[in-house]
Amino acid sequence: MSHFALVGKPNSGKSSLFNLLTGLHQKIANYGGATLESKVGEFHGHEITDLPGIKSLHSVSLDERITKEMVLEYADSKSPILFVLNGMQLENNMLLFSEIADLQIPTIVVINFKDDLAKNRVVFERDKLAQALGCPVVMMNSRNGDGLEELKQLLDTESFKIPNAFCKSLYDEFQDGEILNSYKDSLVQARNDGAHVHENDFFKRQKIIGSIVRSIIEDPTQKRNFLEKSKRWDRFFLHPIYGILFFLFTMLLVFQAVFYFATIPMDWIDQAFASMSEWTNINITNEWVASIISDGILPGLGGVLIFVPQIAILFFLLGILEHSGYLSRISFISNRFLSKFGLSGQSVIPLMSSWACAIPAIMSARMIDDPKERMAVIFATPLMTCSARLPVYTILIAVMVPNATGGIFNIQGVLLLVLYLIGVIATLVTAWFISRRAAIPSSNLWSLELPVYRIPNWRNVLYNMYLKTKAFVIDAGKIIFIVAMVLWFLASYSPQSEAYIENEYQSLVEANPDKVISKDAVHLEYSFAGYLGKLIEPAIKPLGYDWKMGIALISSFAAREVFVGSLSTIYSVGSEEESLILTRLRNEVNADTGEARYNLATCVSLLLFYVFALQCMSTMAIVRRETGSWRVPIIQFVVMLIMAYVFAFIGYRLF
Asked: Does 220 share its domain with 256?
C-alpha cells in the first residue's frame, strides 16, 4: 500500500477533501510521543494521512512541529503529498507551498473552493500555474465534490505513485543538492531552537509568489473585491464596541446551548440508566450480581455516556464557528484581555465552554497553537464553575440563606455570581502562573490569519463532531468506568460482617423509635468509604466538617453532583428531593457544640472547597489523555486540593 499525506494551511478545506476521498474508511491515530491526533484513511489502495494544518515550516507550535517533521520524513523518502490551497487566499497559501516545494517532494496541488472563485468571477490560468510550479494542479470544491473525479484519476496514475514528478523549487539556487540539504538542516535547527523570523527569505518568497499569482489571474480586481466584502463584515465583527457585544452574544448562545440544550438528552440518559438499575434490582435474584450491575457497571457506563450530549453539542458549535471563519475573529477580539494573563485569544473558547463542563473544554484546547499556553489552559480550566457544581452551590446557599429577598437581584443569586467570579479569577491567576513557570517550549509569538467568511461544510462539521465524541467515549470512558467501579466497591463493601451491621441498625431503630432510620445509611457508615470518612475526620475537622461530610466529600470525587445524593443517604432522608434534604441539613446539630452543624462558617467553607477542589475523575481522565501522562492530572489534583483546603480553612475561620 502506498502512502501520501494531505498538507495545507488551516481553513484550506483539507479535512473536507480527506473525508471525500476516504468516506467512512478512516480512523483517529495519535502521533508517537504526542497527544495530538491525525486522521488516517484508505483510498483505492492508498493510505492517506490528514496532517494538522500548518502556517509555515518554521512554526514551533506542537501540532505544526509534528506536521513539519512528517513533511521532512516525506522529503527523505520521496513519498508524495496532496497540497491543498484556499483559492481565495492563494498568495498566502503559496508561501507555505514554496517552502515545501524547496524540499523536492512529489506533489499534486489542489486549489480548493472553486465555487467561491466562480461566484466572485476569479479565473485562474490553471495550465500556466501548473507549468510555473512543475506539478499537477486540480481545481476543487471539497464541499460538494466538484473536481474529485479528476483528482482520483491523478491519484491512480503511475506518475504520482512512483515519485518521479517533483515540484520545482521557486528558488533556483535550491536546485543544488548541497544547498537543499542545508535548507533542510535549517528547518531541523529551527525545530530545536524555537521560532526564527527569516525576514529576507519571507520577502523574497513573497515577491516571487506575487509575480506568479498576478500572471495567472485574468482579472485580479475581482479577487480584491471579494476580500473587500470580508473586510466590510469585519468592520462590524471586529469593532471595539459592536464586535465585543456580538462576541458576548455568540458566547452566550454557545454556553446556553451546551448548558441547556444538552439537559434533555442528558436527562434521557440518566433516566434510562436509572430504569435499567431498577429493572436489575427487581429481576435479578442474586444480590451480589444485582448490586454490581445496578450500583457499579450501569452507573459507570452512565457516568461516561451522560457527557456525550455536551461534548457533541460543543464540538458541533465550534465546527460551525471555525468553518464560517468567525472563530478567528473571536480569538482576535479576546486576545488583548487574555494577553495580560499569559494567554492568547485562542484560549477564550475552552475557558468559556468550561462553564458547561470541563471535559469538552479541555478537549477543545487542542485549537491552541502554543504548547505552554495549551498546558496552562488545561491545568486551569477545572477551576471554572462547571454545571456539576451547581447542585452543591444551590443546596448550600439555600441552607445559608433560607429566605431569598430583593426581587430579581436577591442574595442567593448574588452569592452564586460571587462563586462564579471566584472561579474565573482563580482560573486566570493559575493560567498566568503556569504560563510563566511551566518548563515547556513556547512559540512566544501568536500569529493570526483571518479567513474569508463562508457557509460551513455541514458534512465535515458533523463527521468531525462524531469522531471527537467517539474518541472521548472509547479513550476516556475506560478510565472513568474503572474509577466508578472502585468507588462502588468502597461504598458497597465493609470490613465488618453483615450480622454486625444488622445489629447496629437494629440498635439505632430501638434507640430512635420516632425517627426513620435508613438501612442504606448504616451500611454506608460501616463501608470502606465510611471508615475512610472517619479516618480523614481529624484532617477535615479544622474546616468544620465531621465524618459524615467526609463520606460525601470522598464520594463526590467521582463527580461533584454526587454530594447531594450522598447527603440524602447519610442523613436517612431516603429521597433526593431538595426540600427534604434542606430541612434535614438545617436541623442537623453539632454534637460537640450543640449548635447547627451547617452554620454560616461551615457552609462558606464547603462552598470554597468545592470552588477549588478537582472533584471529577472524568476530568482527570481527559487531562491524562490530552497530556499523555498521569503526572499532570496528579499534580493538578494535589495543587487544587491544597488550594481548596487553604481557602476553606480561611473561610471557616473568618465566618
From this structure: no
How many domains are contained in the chain? Answer: 3
Residue appearing with cell numbers 434542606: 582
Please give the Cα distance from 323 to 311 (Å, whole number): 18
521 with 398, same domain?
no
Give the three-state DSSP class for 123: coil
pLDDT of residue 240: 80
Say which CATH number the domain at 161 has.
3.40.50.300
Q: Of 273, 280, 424, 287, nearest to 348 (Cα)?
A: 424
Domain boundary among the residues 437, 469, 493 is at 437
Q: Compute the distance between CA of residue 302 and CA of residue 273 in angstroms, rounded to an integer.
A: 6
Structural domain includes residue 504: yes
Asked whether residue 159 falls in the same domain as residue 297, the answer is: no
Domain that holds residue 576: 480-654
Residue 198: is its pLDDT beyond 70? Answer: no
Residue type at 224 in one-letter notation: R
Q: Quick check: 312 and 469 in contact, CB under 8 A? A: yes
Closest CA to 568 of 545, 548, 595: 548
Torsion angles phi and psi, residue 494, rounded to 5? -135, 150
Residue 40's beta-bridge partner residues? 27, 49
Q: What is the mean pLDDT of residues 152-174?
A: 56
Residue-wise over 108-147: b if at least 16 C-beta within 10 A, else e? bbbbbbbbbbeebebebeeeebbebbbbbbbbbbbbeeeb
432 shares a domain with 487: no
Identify the CA nearest to 20 among candidates 459, 378, 536. 459
Query: What pTM value is reported for the model?
Result: 0.61
